[in-house]
User: What shape does this take?
Amino acid sequence: MRRCPFIMLVAWGLAACTPQPTRTMSNLVYEYSDGSANRYLIHQDSVEYQPVPPELSSSSMYNGGDPYKVAIDQAQFDQLVSLLEVASQNPAIQLANRVKGSGLIVKHTRPKNEPTNFIIAMNSAERQAIEAWLKALQKQ
Assistant: This one.
């Protein structure tokens, strides 16, 4: 029984000495849902498009197209993050509730996966810039 406190002390010491991941840009993952609710999963090295299939659309007819995944470099990632951050830091374009046509930015911070949501207005220049950038990526 006397070993138990010693073992716990050693385990605590090992845990305290284990390097913890830092919160850098490489630990961030963004999601963006466009005005039609198609999702883009944004990682530091790729963007994955997850379209809305007709059976999940509000009209039962809309089709977001085919899913795809595109590799991106650090400069492209930085550009996209900049667009997302500008939109998420502008309270004038943010909405309290999601409405058709609005954009949704979800920022995840790893390792704890703490999401932060920002809903941006349909007619905002920031939403239009994000979606134009993402559509141009698809054509590459």
